[in-house]
Amino acid sequence: xxxxxxxxxxxxxxxxxxxxxxxxxxxxxxxxxxxxxxxxxxxxxxxxxxxxxxxxxxxxxxxxxxxxxxxxxxxxxxxxxxxxxxxxxxxxxxxxxx
Length: 98
What we know:
By secondary structure, the protein is α+β, with helices and mostly antiparallel strands. The protein has helices at residues 24-40, 63-79, and strands spanning 8-9, 12-13, 53-57, 82-85, 94-97. The chain is globular and about 40 Å long. It starts with 7 loop residues before the first strand and ends with a strand.
């Protein structure tokens, strides 16, 4: 039996950009999973007709733009979440409730 590879460390997903696991494909999958949790498993109820909101923060490295686009695509198209790009630069790319 093959052992599943862990992609999360103590500080999230780490690695070299465009090399697994830090790829747009992985970010898209993680974004879909996060959007599912935010919309389906969220204990807070969203008012009828409203969509949950998320805030996406990223650092200023070039890879941040690739990861941002993949996460936004997953969250918005997959589950219809509203999103906001954080105005401040943050140390690590993050995904959370607004």
